[in-house]
Structure formats: structure tokens, C-alpha cells
Write a structure and sequence with these properties.
Radius of gyration of chain B: 19 Å
CATH topology of the largest domain in chain A: Rossmann fold
Number of helices of chain B: 11
Strand content of chain A: 15-25%
Oligomer: heterotrimer
CATH superfamily of the largest domain in chain A: P-loop containing nucleotide triphosphate hydrolases
Distance between the termini of chain A: 27 Å
CATH class of the largest domain in chain A: Alpha Beta
Order of helices and strands of chain A: EEEHEEHEHHHHEHEHEEHH
Number of domains of chain A: 2
Radius of gyration of chain A: 19 Å
Shape of chain B: globular
Strand content of chain B: under 5%
Largest sheet of chain A: 6 strands, mixed
Helix content of chain A: 25-40%
Strand order of the largest sheet of chain A: 6-7-8-3-9-10
Strand order of the largest sheet of chain B: 1-4
Largest interface: B-C, 49 and 55 residues
Chains: A alpha/beta (257), B mainly alpha (309), C mainly alpha (403)
Chain lengths: 257, 309, 403
């Protein structure tokens, strides 16, 4: 596993009116790692996500991806730079088919515009075919290839989560940021998700993961960062985090796994 | 060119009517998050019914004083307008409460067209003259002239607004309306029947629009089946200016917009070196809307949109 | 109706047969209808233009989910463009311009030639149509720009405002410099001339157009031109729909935040929707001006914007065949009824109780209300559910709360 740092973020502050949502939060993820972000509800995990993916503007912070600074000012620029995300409350394009959802994911890496749309010259046709093929490939990869033509809003909950991951993967990201992908899943679905995440890691992708399921995190993540009330209270190996007093007090509630 | 004071006075008169209509928009938006596109046409219905009543009085009860006639016209127009608005809510909007936002807006547009068509069928296509019932002698205030009708208009508008504030702040129904506007689900949990509140909201808005409609007719001496469209849109702009969902905002926004329009129409010739004349008066409301939505979307009093958790 | 499908993707053979059948019908129609006079073909001529408008608006409302209530402004832009550049109007403009800025006036005369002082500018259709598309497209982007961050209903009102502003300008831009000739409008607009043949017929031909030895009424000649343009519009919008851009539009409609997160530059894509939709409106407007020979602000009011919206909604938002159906119904039906209903009432009741104009308005109002209550997906919604926007602006609310 390479020790090259892929995502390097430091000093993020974010205030909403009277509430200091994030105080001096940072994270460093090496390429090929799965890093977890945990913390009690309201700790600022999704806020942090939204900051690094450009949905919220931070008050301060430095942002580097793959050694180069990137500007989290607009979500589409972030996607272009190489960070793709999923959402806590699934945000699929409900009326589109599963395949089309993933095809939209290819938008940022493709180019055809009005001219190509209308005239369908050779380059446009080739690109369109490539988009379709890659989308099907990704659907197969996450395990819902057979639902390609089904309208997204009619998929089962677990399949919708997979679809969202496939769509994010379609953007060819350097970093895959998943916001509670296991939320609302039963034990079987979580197992399947775990398998998928391992598969993704084995492909060499780097993953940042927000999750509440501690067992899932412990077995999966290379490193874990813990937030509480917008501040970082711990960072390290899962085994270290489990034993960390501050973390136990804040979150694990004294239980052990 | 009229004096500054005269234009302010004109603006106040115009703005009062905008305020009355804006209140209807803002209250409905507050409880339903819906722009009642047809609200301007309720103003028109009020005016038409008012005129019909006046005609009836002329033939069946001549000799009544002008003020009394107007009072009867208004009192007669209100229940009809209220009925119309309640029917609209029941038939067109209620079923679409949970539909995507596009649907009720399109329905509202359809309702607006239907109202105008029915009015056209009943009262005809040409403009109808509205009788001048009060003394035509204008009152002179510091060099500016204001008619008796306009004074009555201002008084009625003020009275209506005071009555509304009292209703919203002091009565049970008022509290219920504010609760539903803030958070309908929790209000329901507290025992508030949101359907009744919504009906009451539509009713009150209609009553105010009816008053505005009759006085509009009295002020401009002519009404027609399309008279509600543009004032309706402008009143909505006023509601946004004041802060949509906020009653005080609607009042302030309405009056402010009236003054902006009056001053704008008066001075636009000077401002543009004669290139644009006062016929461009109608664009001010929309320019204000665009500026507000771009620069300060929450309006003057800040937005109070229902909190859908 | 079950046999009639236009779904090329899933039922190609059936779709092609359906299209061929409809095309054959449309080609034969004018020859049959001409037996009964010119009015029927004229009705369909106008209906074809409105179908073009509806298809253009369908890009904005149907694909991208942006409720534009001022769309008729682009129709007006195209129409007034012909009015200015293919009629004597430019002479009038020049006259008023020279009064205020003689240098500018002289420069224009030098540019276009001295006859423009007497006769105005008369560009050919080959220049005017691309010009209309371009100018209208630019106008679309300009008017769309301030609306990019607005929530659904605010966007509707602001676009309505823009539509009104344009109408007011058209109505008043005759003083001090006479651009639009005010409420009177511009007349004596050149008819379309294609390959040396004027579609209004030559002088003294009684309105007959001579095409390769075969004579047909002017309305028929225009019919085929408009039919061609309509088919082109259907073709182009269909291609746009099933492309990377079309998917981007639907993504924005379904969930703008997710679309952004997937790398779609929503600002540019929305502007493109406005611009493309507007350009179709502009071309239709130019055709309208040339066909009628005259334009006035009355034809471009809020009522018209709503009428076009009704066509899109009635037919099935986003679904092209549905929009064509909606356009045909709402544009042609009232006129047809006028020819049938008024005489029928005369015969039955001795008087006309409901005039055609009233009937038209009733139809529009009822169409909008009933469709939304009964089946928001329209009369002929897409069989492919991904083309339907039902879930769309439900998201607007959540986004609006953040915006």
C-alpha cells in the first residue's frame, strides 16, 4: 500500500450563525486506504463532508487532493477534481432508469454537447456507446446489473444505495466519499455492502466513510477519525480508537466490541 | 409634473390596495407554500359583485348616501369573494397538497383563466363604468389633492390591516394560523385542524381582496374582467419585497411598492432623458421582484416559510 | 391509441410505421382540405407554429424542469426581428434615429445602402431565420441568467415578469426612436421567399403559388414549410433528449444538488436549456411574422405564454409526441370549434350563447386544472417512466430551504 497522501485537509472552520459547526478539523488519507469518520449525531460529520465536496463554503481551511490544492467552491468542480460522494438521504434521479443514473455519472469525464447531440457524428456515437458500456459495467460491479432498465425510484432500498455508489464510481474519482451508506440496512444488506466496499478497496480506490455501525467500521477501516461537537477528538487505528477514553465517553458509551 | 407630495399620496393609495392583496398572497404562502396565482382575480370578482350590488341599489333603493351604498357593496362583495376562494381551495388545491410544486401552480393558472372566463361570460368583455358615489370635490393637503374616495380607501385599508393584526395576534384562530405557518405537523399534534386554518386563511385573504376590488373600482371609475391580473402579480411582488409569509412584510411591501411605482412613473422620464415614459410604470414591480430575489431573497421582514422537517 | 407509438428505442418497427402513417396523413391533408376553402389549412399553419413553440418550451419546462411563464417573449423577439429587418419599418426607425443621432443614421445608410431610407431593410429568409434563432437564443440566456438560483415558483413569477417587461417594451418602443411602432405594430412584412418563389404568391396570381408548374394556395405552400420546420424541431429536440445534454437536463430537474455533485455545471446547462428553448421560439416567431405579414404586441401577452404552457402540460410534460398532441389540440381545436360551434348554436338556439373566444379560454382553463387533478402526467405521458417529471420539484422545497 502506497503511503502517498491523497487527501490532505487541515484547519477547517465552519460557523452557521450562532453555531460553530466545525472547529479546526482536518483529515489525511493515504491512497488506497479506507478511512472512517465517526462521531455522535450532530458532531459535524456530514457538515465536514459538505464542506470538502463544495456544498458548504468553509470559513477557513486548506484543501489538497493528490498533492494539488483544490478549491471546494463548487460541487461540480470538486467532482471534476476527483472527489465523488453519496448522500445520507439517497439522492438518485428517481424518474431515470438505473442505467441512466450511472450514465449521468460519466458526464464529468465526457464532452459531447449540443452539436454532438443533434448530429450524432462518429465521435459522439462512440462516446455515447462508451458511456453506456461503462455504466452497465459499473452496475454489474456493484451487483445490480440486471436492473439496468428499471426506474430508479422502484429499486429496493439496498439496491438504491448500491446504485448511488455505482453512479459515484462513474465519475472516475480519486476519492470516494460515502455518507452513511449502511443507514437503514438490515444485517444481510450490511454484509453485502461490506463485501462491495472491500471489492472497491481492492480495485485500489480510496474511500472516506461516514458510518454509525461501529462493527462495520472497525472491520473495514484502515484508520478512523472521531468528531464530537465539531472538534476532532481522536484519530488513529481502529484498535486505538476503541481504547481511546475520550471516544468511549463521547460515543461508544463504555461498550466494547 | 406632479409634486413630490402628490406622488407620495398617489403611491400611498395604490400601495394600500397592493397591501390588501399582498396579505392574501403572503398568508396562503405561509400555510401552504403555494402562490395562489388566481388571487388577483378574486379582487376582480369583488369589484364585479360590488358593481352589481350598486346597480341593484340604484334601481331598488335609490336615494341612499354614497358612503352607505359603498358599504353595502363591500359587505355584499366579501361573502361572494370568500365563497369563491374557498371553493378554489377545496376543488383545485386541496388534492394537490403533496404533489410536486409544479402541479398546484399550473392548476392555479388554470383557475385564474377560468375565473376570468366566467367573469367575461357574466359581465361582458368591455370595461364597465364604476359609479362615483362620494363627493367629487378633492381635498387639498399641502398642495396635493386627494379625493374622498381615496381617503375612504386609505381608511378602509388601515382598518382592515388593524383588524387582521388583532385577529392574528389575539385570537385563537390567529394563533392556530401562525402555528400552521411555522410547523404544520407539530401544530397538528397540538390539536390544530390545519384544514380549517387553511380555509380560514383563504377566506380572510378573499375578504381583503374584495375590499380592495370595490375600492379599486371606485378609485379608477372603471372595471373589466382582466383587471385583476397585473395588480395581482404586482401584489405578489410586494409580498416578496416585504418578506413572503410575513403579514407585516406584506403591508410594508405593498405600500412601499405603491410609492416606488408612483415615484418611478413620475420620474422615469427625467431619469432616462426622455427615452422611457410613464407607460413603463408596470415594469417597476417586476424589477423590484428581481432585485429582491437576487440581493435579499428573504425580503424586508425576513422569510417565514413553513419549516418542513 | 395502443397501436400508435413513437418509442423508437423500445418498439422501433411499430414506431416507424406510426410515424410514416402520421406523415402521410399530414402530407395529404392540405390537398383534401383545400376543397373546402383556405381556412382549415390556415388553422393548421398556425397550429404548426404553436407546436414548434410548445416543443421549444418543452426543453425548458419538460426536460430541465424550469417553469418559464414568459416564454412568449422569444416568439415576440423572432416576430419583431422580421418586422424590423424584412419590412419598411427600418425606414421609420431610421427617420426617428436620424433626428437624435445623425451620425449613427448616416453610418447605417452607408452600411446597408441608401434605399433603406425609403424602403427599410429586407433580409431574405436565409438570413432572418438564423438571425432570429441566434438573437432569441441570446435573449433566452440573458433572461434565464438571473433565475438560476431561484426556486420553482419564484422562477415562474420572475420569468412572467420578464415576459411582461418585453411586451411593455414592444408596446412602447416607438418613441423617441421608432423600433417597434408601438401598439399599432408593424405591417407589410415580407412574405417568405424560397428559391425565388414567394410563398404569398406573385402579384395578380390571386394568392396562388407556382411551384414547378403546380399551383397551390399560399396557405398550402406555407403549410409545407411549417410542416418541414416542425419535423425538424421534433427531430432536434428528440436528439437532444436522448443525449448527454438531455440526461444532464433531466438530472437537474430530478435533483439539482445530486446533479452538481456528479460534476454537472448546472449554471451552464440551465442557460443552455433557456437558450435552446428560446431559439426555437424565435424561429417560430419569425415564421409567424412573415406568414401574417404583420405583428403587434397583442399577440405576445401573458395569455399566450400560458397557452403554450397549457399545450406542454396537456400533452405530457417532457414527452415529445404528447407535446405535439397537446399543441395540435389546443391550437387547432378552438379554431375548429369556432367554425362548428357558433353556427351550430345559431341553428339550435337562434343566437350564439358561447362565443368561440370564450370557448377557447374555457378549454385552456379546464385543460390546466383538470389535467393536474386527474393525471398530472398529461393526456399521453411517456411510456418510459423516466421521461416523467413527477418527482421533480418535490425536491425544490428541500433545496429552497437551503438556498
Amino acid at each position: 500500500m502506497s503511503s502517498e497522501i491523497l487527501l490532505d485537509i487541515a484547519g477547517v472552520n465552519k460557523r452557521f450563525g450562532g453555531l460553530q459547526a466545525l472547529t479546526d478539523v482536518g483529515i489525511r488519507i493515504a491512497r488506497g486506504q479506507i478511512v472512517g469518520l465517526i462521531g455522535p449525531n450532530g458532531a459535524g460529520k456530514t457538515t465536514f463532508f459538505n464542506v470538502i465536496t463544495g456544498l458548504y463554503q468553509p470559513d477557513s481551511g486548506t484543501f489538497q487532493l493528490g498533492g494539488k490544492p483544490y478549491s471546494p467552491s463548487a460541487p461540480h468542480e470538486v467532482a471534476k477534481a476527483g472527489i465523488a460522494r453519496t448522500f445520507q438521504n439517497i439522492r438518485l434521479f428517481g424518474e431515470m432508469s438505473a442505467l441512466e443514473n450511472v450514465m449521468v455519472g460519466r458526464h464529468v469525464r465526457t464532452r459531447q454537447g449540443v452539436f454532438g447531440a443533434i448530429f450524432r457524428h462518429k465521435a459522439a456515437r462512440l462516446e455515447e456507446a462508451a458511456i453506456r458500456a461503462r455504466a452497465q459495467e459499473l452496475l454489474d460491479f456493484v451487483g445490480i446489473g440486471q436492473f439496468a432498465q428499471r426506474t430508479a425510484k422502484y429499486l429496493s432500498y439496498g439496491d438504491q444505495r448500491r446504485l448511488e455508489i455505482a453512479r459515484a464510481l462513474a465519475t472516475d474519482p480519486q476519492l470516494l466519499a460515502l455518507d452513511e451508506p449502511a443507514a437503514g440496512m438490515n444485517a444481510t444488506e450490511k454484509l453485502a455492502l461490506r463485501e462491495l466496499l472491500v471489492k472497491i478497496k481492492n480495485e485500489g480506490k480510496t474511500v472516506l466513510l461516514i458510518e454509525h455501525d461501529v462493527k462495520l467500521m472497525m472491520g473495514l477501516c484502515d484508520r478512523i477519525t472521531v468528531l464530537e461537537y465539531g472538534k476532532q477528538i481522536a484519530e488513529g487505528l481502529p484498535s486505538e480508537i476503541q481504547k481511546n477514553e475520550a471516544v468511549i465517553k463521547a460515543y461508544l458509551g463504555g461498550a466494547h466490541e | 409634473m406632479e409634486t413630490f407630495l402628490q406622488q407620495i399620496l398617489n403611491g400611498l393609495v395604490l400601495g394600500s390596495m397592493y397591501a390588501l392583496v399582498a396579505l392574501g398572497y403572503t398568508m396562503v404562502y405561509g400555510v401552504l407554500n403555494l402562490i395562489n396565482f388566481a388571487h388577483g382575480d378574486v379582487l376582480m370578482i369583488g369589484a364585479m359583485i360590488g358593481l352589481t350590488i350598486l346597480k341593484l341599489l340604484e334601481t331598488h333603493a335609490p336615494g341612499l348616501s354614497g358612503g352607505l351604498q359603498l358599504a353595502i357593496a363591500i359587505l355584499g362583495a366579501i361573502p361572494v369573494a370568500v365563497l369563491v376562494n374557498i371553493l378554489i381551495e377545496r376543488i383545485a388545491y386541496r388534492r394537490l397538497r403533496n404533489a410536486p410544486r409544479l402541479a398546484p401552480l399550473i392548476t392555479a393558472i388554470g383557475v385564474s383563466i377560468l375565473l376570468q372566463t366566467f367573469a367575461m361570460m357574466i359581465w361582458g368583455r368591455s370595461p364597465l363604468p364604476f359609479p362615483q358615489l362620494l363627493s367629487p370635490e378633492p381635498v387639498n393637503i399641502g398642495g396635493a389633492l386627494i379625493s374622498h374616495t381615496q381617503i375612504l380607501l386609505l381608511a378602509l385599508a388601515a382598518a382592515s390591516m388593524v383588524a387582521l393584526v388583532l385577529l392574528v395576534e389575539r385570537t385563537r384562530m390567529g394563533r392556530a394560523m401562525r402555528a400552521v405557518a411555522e410547523n404544520p405537523r407539530v401544530a397538528g399534534l397540538m390539536g390544530v385542524d390545519s384544514n380549517r386554518v387553511i380555509v380560514a386563511t383563504f377566506a380572510i385573504g378573499a375578504a381583503l381582496a374584495a375590499v380592495a376590488g370595490v375600492m379599486w373600482g371606485a378609485n379608477y371609475a372603471s372595471i373589466t374582467f382582466t383587471m385583476g391580473v397585473l395588480p395581482g402579480m404586482k401584489a405578489f411582488c410586494a409580498a416578496v419585497l416585504g418578506g413572503i409569509g410575513n403579514i407585516y412584510g406584506a403591508m410594508i411591501g405593498g405600500i412601499l411598492l405603491g410609492i416606488i411605482e408612483a415615484l418611478g412613473a413620475g420620474y422615469i422620464g427625467d431619469l432616462t432623458g426622455g427615452f422611457l415614459g410613464s407607460h413603463y410604470q408596470d415594469i417597476f414591480a417586476f424589477i423590484v421582484l428581481i432585485l429582491v430575489l437576487t440581493l435579499r431573497p428573504s425580503g424586508i421582514m425576513g422569510e417565514r416559510v413553513a419549516d418542513r422537517a | 391509441m395502443a397501436l400508435l407509438t413513437f418509442d423508437l428505442q423500445h418498439k422501433p418497427r411499430q414506431a416507424r410505421i406510426s410515424m410514416a402513417a402520421v406523415l402521410a396523413l399530414m402530407l395529404v391533408f392540405p390537398f383534401v382540405a383545400s376543397q373546402f376553402g383556405n381556412s382549415w389549412v390556415r388553422i393548421i399553419d398556425i397550429a404548426l407554429l404553436y407546436i414548434m413553440l410548445a416543443l421549444g418550451l418543452n426543453i425548458v419546462v419538460g426536460f430541465a424542469g424550469l417553469l418559464d411563464l414568459g416564454y412568449i417573449a422569444f416568439f415576440a423577439v423572432g416576430a419583431y426581428l422580421v418586422g424590423l429587418f424584412a419590412s419598411p419599418q427600418f425606414a421609420a426607425l431610421l427617420e426617428s434615429l436620424i433626428y437624435y443621432s445623425p451620425t449613427l443614421g448616416e453610418w447605417l445608410v452607408a452600411l446597408f445602402g441608401p434605399e433603406i431610407q425609403q424602403k427599410g431593410i429586407h433580409l431574405s429568409v436565409w438570413a432572418v431565420v438564423p438571425l432570429a434563432a441566434l438573437v432569441a437564443g441570446l435573449a433566452g440566456a440573458l433572461l434565464g441568467a438571473p433565475t438560476l438560483k431561484l426556486r420553482g415558483d419564484y422562477l415562474a413569477i420572475v420569468t412572467l415578469g420578464f415576459g411582461e417587461i418585453i411586451r411593455i417594451f414592444m408596446n412602447n418602443l416607438n418613441d423617441p426612436i421608432n423600433f417597434t411602432n408601438g401598439p399599432q405594430g408593424i405591417n407589410m412584412i415580407d412574405p417568405i421567399r424560397v428559391f425565388g418563389v414567394s410563398l404569398a404568391g406573385e402579384q395578380g396570381s390571386g394568392g396562388m403559388v407556382d411551384i414547378g408548374g403546380y399551383a397551390m394556395p399560399s396557405v398550402n405552400a406555407y403549410y409545407f414549410l411549417f410542416l418541414f420546420l416542425c419535423i425538424a424541431t421534433i427531430f432536434i429536440t428528440s436528439r437532444l433528449q436522448h443525449s448527454r445534454l438531455g440526461r444532464a437536463w433531466v438530472a437537474i430537474r430530478e435533483d439539482e444538488i445530486a446533479a452538481k455533485a456528479m460534476g454537472i455545471n448546472t449554471r451552464n446547462v440551465k442557460l443552455l436549456a433557456f437558450a435552446m428553448g428560446a431559439s426555437f421560439g424565435g424561429v417560430a416567431g419569425a415564421m409567424f411574422g412573415a406568414f401574417q405579414g404583420f405583428v403587434s404586441p397583442e399577440s405576445f401577452s401573458l395569455t399566450e405564454s400560458i397557452a403554450v404552457l397549457a399545450m406542454v402540460v396537456l400533452g405530457g410534460i417532457g414527452h415529445i409526441p404528447g407535446v405535439v398532441l397537446g399543441g395540435m389540440l389546443l391550437a387547432a381545436l378552438p379554431e375548429v370549434l369556432r367554425h362548428v360551434v357558433e353556427p351550430a348554436q345559431q341553428a339550435l338556439f337562434g343566437t350564439v350563447i358561447i362565443e368561440a373566444e370564450v370557448l377557447r379560454q374555457l378549454l385552456y382553463g379546464l385543460a390546466l386544472v383538470l389535467i393536474m387533478l386527474v393525471n398530472p402526467a398529461g393526456l399521453w405521458p411517456s411510456p418510459n417512466r423516466e421521461e416523467r417529471p413527477n418527482a421533480a420539484l418535490a425536491h425544490d422545497e428541500q433545496e429552497g430551504a437551503k438556498a
